[in-house]
Amino acid sequence: MNKIERSAWNPPEMVVPHGAFSHVVGVSGVQKWLFLTDKASVAADGSLVGEGDAAAQTQWVLELIGIGLKSGGATWANVVQLSTHLVGRGSVAPFLETRDRFFGEVYPDRDFPSNTLVVVDGLVREGMLVAVTAVAALP
Question: Is 68 exposed, middle or buried (CB count within 10 Å of its CB: 0-12, 13-18, 19+)?
């Protein structure tokens, strides 16, 4: 059975990560890539989940990513990179708290994917505060 080798590290010359992410992630043995488009806090019926609540939206977005990963035969262990867009600085702390709690469960060894976090003025739909894109590597 093919297996990917995934390792994450933080070079000592770089600042210690201030959250659940790694500065560098190396992957070998990849046969398939999954690219999950920005997941935002929208339910299957089109309704907004957790309007105005960055923590609730973060939880929902992470659950949606899990669903997308599963549909492609992957798990959170296959995720190598995330890109996060948050509306306003007030969304940062609730996002980090929720993500760190969630990642504590899916990455018990603290082998986190890399993550770029950007604060923006708004997302495509009023009331959306969190959007996350994921990249996963599979053997």
Answer: middle
Query: Which residues of the chain are modeled with pLDDT < 50?
Result: none
Cβ-Cβ contacts under 8 Å for 79 (sequence gap 6 or more): 65, 69, 113, 134, 135, 136
Pair 80, 136: CB distance under 8 Å? yes
Tell me what pLDDT residue 130 has.
Answer: 98
> pTM surpassing 0.90?
no
**Are the C-beta atoms of residues 116 and 38 closer than 8 Å to each other?**
no
Question: Is 72 part of a structural domain of the chain?
Answer: yes
Distance CA 111, CA 123 (A): 30
- Per-residue confidence (pLDDT) for residue 71, from 0 to 100: 93
Backbone dihedral angles phi then psi of residue 71, each to the nearest 5 degrees: -65, -20
Query: Which residues on neighbouring strands pair with residue 39, listed in sequence order?
Result: 132
**Residue 42 tokens, joined:** 């929208």
Residues, the chain, total? 139
Q: What angle do CA 130, 132, 45 make, to 5 degrees?
A: 70
Q: Is residue 96, in this structure, part of any structural domain at all? A: yes
> How many domains are contained in the chain?
1
CATH label of the domain that carries residue 124: 3.30.1330.40
